[in-house]
Amino acid sequence: MLFGEYGVDVVVTPESYTWDFGDGETVVTADPGRPYPAFVVTHTYLDLGRRTISLTTAWSGRYRLDMDPSGRWRDVEGTTHTVDQGEEFEVIELRGHLTGE
Prior knowledge:
single chain; mainly beta; two-stranded antiparallel sheet; about 0% helix
């Protein structure tokens, strides 16, 4: 990235993930999760209804200026957050039962 006449290298790193399951329950993880069937992040709903899951990611950053002869990386103060929200879905309950057939 060029800033004025100087180049700037920027690195952002996810620090934590806060999962909001839409039912009042949240969990903070160091892992962003993975697609089914990994079961890295899971949640059990206790009530039926419409829900939306959101994920808030906390980011840290560091930078260095090309003009700095030492090439030293500097931390960005504080963190920033991004929020991603999924599509609304219906929590339902399915039960299997044995039959005589």
